[in-house]
Amino acid sequence: MIWARRLKLLTKFGVAALALGALATNGSAQDAYQGKFTLPFETHWGGATLPAGDYTFTMASASSPYTLYIHGQAGNAIIRASAADEKVVSGHAQLNLVDIADVQNVETFEAPELGRTFSYWTPKQKNMGHKEARQKTMPQTAPASQVSENKTTSIEVRSTGR
User: Fold this and answer.
1) Cα separation values, 134 from 22, 101, 124, 126, 146, Å
2) What angle do CA 156, 42, 155 make, to 5 degrees?
3) How far apart (Å, rounded) are the C-alpha atoms in residues 117 and 157?
4) 93-126: per-residue pLDDT in tens?
5) Helix, strand or coil, per DSSP, at residue 132
6) CA-to-CA distance for 90 and 29, rounded, in angstroms?
7) E strand intervals along the chain
8) Do the beta carbons of residue 25 and residue 18 sit within 8 Å?
9) How far apart are CA 145 and CA 10, in angstroms?
C-alpha cells in the first residue's frame, strides 16, 4: 500500500517535471530564419511536391543540416538542403526555380540575411548529351532562349526575420 502511494507520487512529480521542461523549451526556442512565399504553380522541392498557394517556412537552426519546415493550406513539408554556399547573388531573399521537362523545381534558396544560398536536389534532364551536341551546332547569333533548354524563374521570399 505504501509502495503504491510512493509510485503515484513519483509519477505525478515526473509528469510535472516533464511539463515544466517542455514549457521552458518552447518559451526559449527561437527560429534562426522564417518567412513567407507564394507559389504560382505546382513546384517540386527536393522530394516534396507543393501545389500552388501561399506558404510560410521556418529554419530552426542556421547551421548544418539546413532544414526548412514549410507550412501551407494544402499540407506541410520538411526539406533539407543538399548544400549551402556563402555566396549570395541577390540582395533580397528568393527561390530560384528551374524548368526541367515542363516541371518547376526549386534549385536554390537565397537568404542574404543569413549570408547563404542553399541548394536543393533537382532531377537531371534526360538525354542531356544529345541536347549539348545540338547546342554546339547552333549559330553564334542564336538568342539565349534557344541555347538554354532549362528556363529559370525567381520567386520573392518575404523574410520575417531571424
Assistant:
1) 60, 17, 18, 14, 11
2) 10
3) 13
4) 999 999 999 999 999 999 999 999 999 999 885 5
5) helix
6) 29
7) 33-39, 43-45, 48-50, 53-59, 67-72, 75-80, 83-85, 94-100, 103-111, 116-119, 152-159
8) no
9) 71
- The residue assigned the cell 500500500 is 1
Q: How far apart are CA 10 and CA 54, in angstroms?
A: 47
Cβ count near 65 (within 10 Å): 9
| Phi, psi angle pair for 132, to nearest 5° | -65, -40
C-beta atoms surrounding 50 within 10 Å? 22
Query: Does the predicted TM-score (pTM) go above 0.90?
Result: no
Pairing type for strands 103-111 and 43-45 reads parallel
Backbone φ and ψ for 23, nearest 5 degrees, come out as: -65, -40
Contact 51, 80 (CB under 8 A): no
The answer to whether 135 and 147 are in contact (CB under 8 A) is yes
Q: Helix or strand or coil: residue 77? A: strand
